[in-house]
Write a structure and sequence with these properties.
alpha+beta, EC 3.6.1.22, four-stranded mixed β-sheet, 7 helices, 2 domains, about 20% helix, Nucleoside Triphosphate Pyrophosphohydrolase, NAD, globular
């Protein structure tokens, strides 16, 4: 497959769908609450960590915390067996089965081992709970707001104005020459040898494609063309949506680091990138001069998909 036929080979890990989001129950709150006695509950602590057992997020019984959802609970969806799933910000509790293996991990470190249901529930709960933590007061007049619609909205009781979970869109792009080379770069704050593809936030009044062209020009000085969409992934750290692209660049054009975010960049061959992928990721103790992102990031899926091209 040539670069012109470049597609993602797999759905990014955090984009997997494992449960019905059941958005109708957010407005039919009575129906959502009616399912509470049989519902399951995901606890997320202040460090955005959850309890994991055998590749799944540990879900407790919702009824153990009360007869109805707490005010700050968020509705996460409906599971395959019909039970509702909710999330709360709370200290973690051990599984009911004391023999069950369990560990405390966050989404960055556990996303690759989650099943589809856990990945969706934890990503959604993390995003919503982080938003609630920072949206307790109206951005208009500073009044205290209240959670409504099963945690999917907040309202100013004085004015009736609603606020909804905020998402910050960002582009992430693999620049390649259309043949055998692609650009990888290291941010100034990253340790030596840690490289990835280029990313940046979308500005007001800007399209995704325009953002790709601008960000790459600002960060490494390259002029790119043929910007094409690949896929997207929620990134709730704290509230981003990563929108993936690939674009063509000219290896003869010199790099210039214009905004101070990039410490170094280079063109790497497909064989060099394949070798780096085989050595693991950023968490590896490999002595390789090139360490790449872990599988939880859409960056890894984009790089792997490009590297797999013949």
């Amino acid at each position: 497959m040539s670069a012109s036929g470049f597609r993602l080979r797999n759905i990014p890990l955090l984009s997997r769908v494992g449960a019905d989001r059941a958005d109708a129950l957010r407005t039919d709150v009575d129906a959502a609450i009616a399912g509470w006695p049989d519902a399951l509950l995901l606890r997320v602590d202040r460090r955005n960590q959850v309890l994991i057992s055998e590749g799944r997020a540990v879900l407790g019984r919702a009824a153990e915390v009360g007869d109805a959802p707490p005010q700050d609970a968020v509705f996460l969806g409906r599971l395959a067996d019909g039970r509702h799933a909710w999330g709360i910000r709370a200290e973690l509790q051990a599984p009911e089965d004391p023999q069950a293996p369990a560990e405390v991990l966050d989404l960055r470190r556990a996303g690759e081992v989650f099943d589809d249901v856990s990945a969706q529930l934890v990503a959604t709960a993390t995003a919503l709970l982080n938003w609630h933590d920072s949206a307790r007061f109206s951005p208009v007049d500073g009044s205290a707001t209240t959670s409504i619609k099963a945690g999917w909205s907040r309202v100013n009781p004085a004015t009736g104005r609603e606020e909804f979970p905020r998402i910050d869109p960002a582009v992430i792009c693999l620049v390649h020459d259309g043949h055998d080379r692609a650009v990888l770069a290291r941010q100034t704050l990253w340790p030596q040898r840690l490289f990835s593809i280029l990313a940046g936030f979308v500005e007001a009044g800007e399209s995704f494609e325009s953002c790709v062209v601008r960000e790459i020009s600002e960060e490494i000085g390259l002029t790119v063309t043929d910007v094409e969409y690949l896929g997207s992934q929620p990134w709730p750290f704290p509230r981003s949506l990563m929108v993936g692209f690939h674009a063509l660049g000219d290896p003869e054009q010199e790099f210039s680091f214009n905004d101070g975010e990039i410490a170094e960049a280079g063109w790497f061959t497909r064989s060099e990138i394949r070798e780096a992928l085989e050595r693991g990721d950023w968490s590896s103790d490999s002595p390789s001069r090139l360490l790449l992102p872990g599988s939880i990031s859409i960056a890894r899926e984009i790089i792997e998909s490009w590297a797999a091209l013949d």
